Design the sequence.
């Protein structure tokens, strides 16, 4: 995948005049960050949260005094849904809610805030995911990059939404991003310069329902980049030398057990020699005949 080409096409399709009304689903820190980015680039924003008991005044304060976004809590009407051109999901909101499925069936694009930030951000992204160790690894990688680059942002699930810094990034910037499985559910063209999956163990099954779905979110949806050798040079490959089988002449008193022990340093490999030579009874070999010892 050519990341530069993907990002260019992806960004242009969203920034065009055809997509103006955007709903941000979820009023947490990620939803606030996404709403601010969208307002800054001139989109008409609806910030929605299904929890009708939230304090709408506090949410509006978080959005800022010059906020142009409309905040809706509780029920979202079909009339409003029918006007939407894009939905940006906060990672804490399940993507299989009936209202989200309804939007999807209506053909409304469903993005995550990581996808939104990637559409507007410049520079390179180094993405870290996995069940355990993401935050530590992301913080460490961020400190390493700060020793080599002037413009480095540590973002994502580490507590600093990517959307809050995307518009500040330049072509030579680097975003070191901790990305969770929740965030990876709603990416489409997110294409890091380098990706790392640290580990995958059972977790968040109340959200993903099955281990297979959890692995798919981690493994299949994080796009690994083109030309990684420009970032981490690989050592030159040594010419491959294929080992050859050994032809051995059976002597009086030999056993396959002893031959395997001498060659493989493991007498139990006598079965391997027997199978390789079609010897049905490993205890019965004839002196003076030849066998092939499979290469190590």
Sequence:
């Amino acid at each position: 995948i050519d990341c530069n080409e993907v990002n260019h096409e992806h960004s242009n399709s969203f920034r065009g005049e055809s997509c103006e009304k955007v709903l941000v689903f979820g009023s947490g820190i990620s939803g606030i960050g996404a709403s601010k980015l969208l307002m800054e680039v001139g989109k008409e924003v609806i910030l929605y949260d299904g929890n009708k008991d939230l304090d709408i005044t506090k949410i509006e304060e978080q959005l800022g005094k010059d906020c142009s976004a409309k905040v809706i809590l509780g029920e979202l009407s079909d009339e409003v849904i029918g006007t939407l051109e894009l939905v940006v999901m906060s990672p804490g909101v399940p993507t299989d809610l009936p209202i989200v499925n309804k939007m999807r069936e209506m053909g409304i694009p469903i993005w995550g805030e990581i996808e939104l930030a990637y559409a507007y951000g410049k520079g390179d992204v180094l993405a870290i995911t996995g069940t355990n160790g993401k935050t530590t690894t992301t913080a460490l990688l961020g400190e390493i990059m700060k020793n080599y680059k002037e413009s480095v942002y540590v973002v994502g699930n580490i507590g600093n939404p990517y959307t809050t810094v995307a518009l500040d990034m330049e072509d030579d910037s680097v975003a070191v991003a901790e990305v969770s499985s929740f965030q990876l559910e709603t990416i489409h063209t997110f294409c890091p310069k380098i990706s790392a999956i640290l580990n995958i163990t059972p977790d968040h099954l109340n959200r993903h329902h099955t281990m297979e779905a959890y692995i798919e979110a981690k493994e299949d949806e994080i796009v690994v980049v083109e030309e990684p050798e420009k970032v981490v040079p690989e050592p030159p490959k040594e010419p491959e030398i294929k080992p050859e089988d050994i032809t051995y002449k059976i002597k009086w008193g030999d056993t396959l057990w002893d031959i395997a022990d001498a060659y493989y340093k493991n007498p139990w490999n006598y079965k391997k020699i027997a199978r390789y030579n079609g010897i049905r009874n490993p205890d019965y070999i004839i002196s003076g005949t030849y066998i092939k010892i499979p290469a190590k």
Remarks:
- The longest strand covers residues 44-49.
- DSSP finds twelve helices and eleven strands in the chain.
- Residues 3-15 form the longest helix (13 residues).
